[in-house]
Amino acid sequence: MKQPLLGKTLGELTDIVTSLSMPRFTAKQIAEWVYQKQIDNIDEMTNREKLGSSYYIGKTAPTRRSESIDGTVKYLFPTLSGHTIETVYIPDGDRATLCVSSQIGCKMNCLFCQTGKQGWQGNLTPTDILNQVVSCDYPERLTNIVFMGQGEPLDNYDNLTTSLSILTADYGWQWSPRRITVSTIGLRTHLRQFLDESQCHLAVSLHSPIHEVREQLMPAERQFPIADIVSLLRQYDWTHQRRITFEYTMFGGLNDTQLYAKQLVHLLSGLHCRVNLIRWHRIPGVELNEVDETRMTAFRDYLNNHGIPTTIRASRGQDIFAACGMLISN
């Protein structure tokens, strides 16, 4: 059975050419064809003779494309395992952000997230992850990549870091890690490792500074309390180029009062960070309320006035079910 070249590191490509009795230097040439020239078919390569019988490029077009009235595009991509995942392209003036998935479904089962309702069907391979980047409509226009799609990125750590390595490597796509953000619920199992090994930005899904309420919203709070996560983050320097953002989805009548704002200031005080407030969008079977705009603005202003830089994230793609927490494999 043929294997994809997309998703292979330079070391893996070197092993491949060595096994085929090809010169070692051809590994870098293959990487250039796949990652920098972004060819579609192995027949486009000049050194393809020995590769063609066992390997193919690995790019796969989406099987469905939906476009929002605001220009956001959602794709449904097939995976190597035979499942599907969703990816979202968000144009915004001279910026274009791609929200990529890291897993098929998710184990975290957050109350408010549609992805968690489908359960977990497996990890995406580096091929699956990078195919989302190279097979969207305008990969050359991308200015940012955020691992905020389906799944918990740190729960697929090895494949995540392989993908990040290829995205940022000289032999790969040569992206600055400052153009990439990895989101996590605070999976401490790999969080310290990620912080030590990567210079990409970090986004932490917080949603409540109060343990009991966060546990209600996010079962992972039992094993990975947000207080412990913040304590770990305080051990790192966030005053230079790498940035940390806390994602805070707001629910009407639950976590949108000044009490929560005060607790959030207490939790994050002294940590060089920012907070992103996110509107929750209804999903079937979940008895939570959407937040009032006035309360959301007051919450933002309170945090800003108390030294926590805070913004309200613009909601994009809601009409095609592409907004935060709405992605699902189907």
Please tell me about this protein's structure.
With 330 residues, the protein is of the alpha/beta class. Helices cover 29% and strands 20% of the residues. Helix 1 crosses helix 2 (26-36), helix 4 crosses helix 5 (157-168) and helix 9 packs parallel to helix 10. It starts with a strand and ends in an 18-residue tail after the last strand.
List low-pLDDT spans.
none
User: Largest sheet, if any?
Assistant: 10 strands, mixed
Radius of gyration from the alpha-carbon trace, in angstroms: 21 Å
What is the beta-strand fraction?
15-25%
The SSE order reads: EHHEEEEEEHEHEHEHEHHEHEHE
The CA-CA distance between the termini, in Å, is 27 Å
The residue-averaged pLDDT reads 92
**Class per helix and strand makeup:** alpha/beta
| Mass-distribution shape | elongated
Adjacency order of strands in the biggest sheet: 3-4-5-6-9-10-11-12-13-14
DSSP strand tally: 14
Number of helices: 10
What's the helical proportion of residues?
25-40%
Q: What is the chains' assembly state?
A: single chain
